[in-house]
Amino acid sequence: MSTIESILTENRIFKPSQNFTEQANLSEWQEYKKLLTEADSDYEGFWARMATENIDWNKPFSKILNSDNPPFFRWFEDGELNVSWNCLDRHLTTQPNKVAIIFESDDGNVTRITYKQLYHRVCQLSNGLSKELKILPGDRVIIYMPMSIEAVVAMQACARIGATHSVVFGGFSAKSLQDRIIDAGANCVITADGGIRNGKEVFLKNTVDEALGSGGCECVKHVVVYQRTKSTINMDTKKDIWMHDLVQNQPDVSNPVWVSSEHPLFILYTSGSTGKPKGVQHSSGGYLLQAQLTMKWSFDYKQKDIFWCTADVGWVTGHTYIAYGPLAVGATQVIFEGVPTYPDANRFWQMIANHSVTVFYTAPTAIRSLIKLGKDLPKQHNLTSLRLLGSVGEPINPEAWVWYHSTVGSGKCPIVDTWWQTETGGHMITPLPGITPLKPGSCTLPLPGIVADVVDESGESVEKGKGGILVIKKPWPSMIRNIWGDPERFKKTYFPDDFDGKYYLAGDGANRDADGYYWIMGRIDDVLVVSGHNLGTMEIESALVAHPLVAEAAVVGKPDNVKGETIVAFVVLQGDLPIGDESDQTAQILRNWVTKQIGPVAKPEEIRFGDNLPKTRSGKIMRRLLRSIAKDEEITQDTSTLENPSILEQLKKVR
Ligand code: PRX
Questions:
Q1: Centre of ligand 1 from the C-alpha of residue 393, in Å
Q2: Phi (first) and psi of residue 170, to 5 degrees
Q3: Three-state DSSP state, 442
Q4: pLDDT tens, position by position, 61-83
Q5: Which residue minimizes the CA distance to atom 13 of ligand 1?
Q6: Ligand 1 centroid to 268 CA: how many Å?
Q7: Measured in angstroms, how far is the CA atom of residue 135 from the centroid of ligand 1?
Q8: Could you read off the pLDDT of 261-290 as tens digits, one per residue?
Q9: I need a labelling partner for 75 at 20 to 30 A (CA). Which of 103, 410, 418, 595 fits?
């Protein structure tokens, strides 16, 4: 890692316009420096001030950071709050009739809901869950929903009663859902009959039935079903209940359950490079603080904004920048059920124009595919309402950045390229749009209170201009608290012995340039980023190996202009090497299998069969060699540790 150099040379600099800077929440370098100095001289005092000024506590905290048992850090632990109260009740007197959510469905139907209406909806569902279904604080509730107002209501209702939610992305298969239900030990699932994307129905309730029917999910006592599509589904009278029936006679007010700042607000499963998905456990107070601060700092939130984050609530971006952050600051936000390309590639631009969106936050993969489908389409729409653009999920290529800036933002909107992770809870390294000069492709500088660094394998800071391992050197309030049910894995994964357990290991490679700007170079392990989704190789490999025909499998990414990466799988079959048609047929069987096991996003684009895989003597698969083969590149890397070099020639030839 310490030898990694940035191959990207990007010298363009974009300064915020005077107009933008004048109105920005943070508008001068001195202000930023002052915050940095404050955090530097009194780290805990800085965070205590932020937490006091931004969050409404039912009982104020007296302890700031508890580091007695690192890396299990605890922030504001004796403080009591309710996250839903902070997102809803506190706006009831100041702005009850402000629109909280503008929901646009796949077919273009628009629904608006005010803060007061949202509050009542959340109260009714929370009453239904706690009084009727007897869901208690600390119980885990799985949410498997389409993008909808109801998905946010479900998350907020859980937060209100102190239940810990775990949202599972609606594109995941029954098997993935089942694994997560079992790991979380959930007693309730909130789902919908279906969702509509791209003009087609996604049958969610059927998938829930399949997951629950596969065994191991006996912990689930209730399934709450939101009626979205009205298609025929199976309702089990013992377990299943329609959401509209559950809330029908419930009072539309409720007292929130006050919880400790450390109470787990949610678990969100994320794929790692090895082993099963990790249940990233977040807190309440610290998490909410970063969600709120970054709405103000990174997104320069203003009362009049129409904020639109295009992520799905199944990912952390949809948690922090849909379900919690925008509501905590009292914003009006757009929520979209569909996809950017339906009915055609004008959809995003049309929606920005129709809803007068001011702050637009999306992923590089969406930007790349929209460039491909219609470079000039944004020009056909009135996008003058936009004042700020954001990017998240993977490094954005400078050319895509420049297109986004000039064509979507008309050259006047700063772009906040926000680096963060499921585990960090909120933005970490990101521009302050009124202050930071931007360099396309760089997420620029750490936010105040975030102590990032780039180090080599021994934990020493690398000099500017060199690449290395991205670490965070001090605990911060919105950090991951644990891997659900697996504290040892939490320690090993994020606070490894390599750095004496002191630094948080982000798992990304990064380069810092002469100005101290951070350039993320991707994962240091083998996680693939396909269409904006981070997929663990191990999960896909495990799915392949679970098929009776397969003996071994290794999965690597192959660069793709649109998807970021496509998946290439190298497979060793139980039987002989297949030839001709047999090879194609087997590949198809395995592709379908992976789709069923994990979901379409994990489907390998290409499957190559071999007699073996390249392995080190200790038995580790050398994926970096497979990456070169997948790209049809000459192998120039060191192969001296390879146990079976001849296999490389075979894998190159065999398709
Ligand atoms: O590799 C980094 C990449 O996405 C990873 C985190 O993925 P996930 O937990 O799914 O969260 C995605 C949404 C926050 C990071 O370790 N990543 C995320 N944002 C950026 C990024 N890489 C480069 N630039 C970014 N802005």
A1: 4
A2: -65, -10
A3: coil
A4: 999 999 999 999 999 999 999 99
A5: 393
A6: 15
A7: 33
A8: 999 999 999 864 445 789 999 999 999 999
A9: 418
In sequence order, what are the beta bridge partners of 166?
142
**370 closest CA partner among 350, 394, 393, 395:** 350
CA-CA-CA-CA dihedral for 290, 358, 338, 268, to nearest 10 = 0
**What pLDDT digit, counting tens, does each position of 241-267 carry?**
999 999 999 999 999 999 999 999 999
Pocket of ligand 1 (CB under 6 A): 270, 316-317, 392-395, 417-422, 443, 506-508, 520, 523, 534
Q: Is pLDDT at 368 greater than 80 in this prediction?
A: no
CB-hemisphere CA count at 13 Å for 484?
28
Tell me, in angstroms, the distance from the centre of ligand 1 to residue 515's CA. 22
Q: How far is residue 154 CA from its own chain's centroid?
A: 18
Write the residue with the smallest CA distance to atom 21 of ligand 1: 394
Q: Whose CA is nearest to atom 11 of ligand 1?
A: 421
DSSP element (H, E) containing 119: helix 115-127
pTM: 0.85
The pLDDT score that the predictor gives to residue 3 is 31
Q: How far is residue 127's CA from residue 252's CA, in Å, rounded to a whole number?
A: 8
Q: Ligand 1 centroid vs 534 CA: distance in angstroms?
A: 8
Give dist(CA 80, CA 263) in Å, integer: 9
Does 524 have pLDDT greater than 80? no
> Are 631 and 590 within 8 A, CB to CB?
no
Ligand 1 center to residue 316 CA distance, Å?
10
Sheet holding 110-114, edge to edge: 110-114, 99-104, 332-336, 306-309, 359-362, 388-391, 415-417
What's the pLDDT score for residue 466? 77
Whether residue 468 contacts residue 454, with contact meaning beta carbons closer than 8 Å, is answered with: yes
pLDDT on residue 634: 84
pLDDT value of position 122: 98
Q: Whose CA is nearest to atom 23 of ligand 1?
A: 395
Please give the structure tokens belonging to residue 368.
Answer: 């790349």
Strand pairing class (452-455; 467-472): antiparallel
Cα maximum dimension of the chain: 73
Write phi, then psi, for 86 (nearest 5 degrees): -70, -25
| Cα 65 to chain centroid, rounded | 26
Nearest ligand 1 atom, CA 443:
26
Distance CA 570, CA 592 (A): 16
Give percent of the chain with pLDDT exceeding 70.
Answer: 94
The Cα 282–Cα 266 span in angstroms is: 6
Residue 280 CA, closest ligand 1 atom number: 9
Residue nearest to atom 25 of ligand 1 (CA): 419
Residue 91 CB coordination number (10 Å): 22
Report pLDDT for 243.
98
**Residue 407: HSE in the Cβ half-sphere, 13 Å Cα cutoff:** 18
> Which residue, by CA, sits nearest to atom 5 of ligand 1?
421
* CA dihedral over 280, 283, 288, 289, signed as positive or negative: negative
- Is the separation of the CB atoms in 329 and 98 below 8 Å? no
Give nearest CA residue, ligand 1 atom 3. Answer: 394
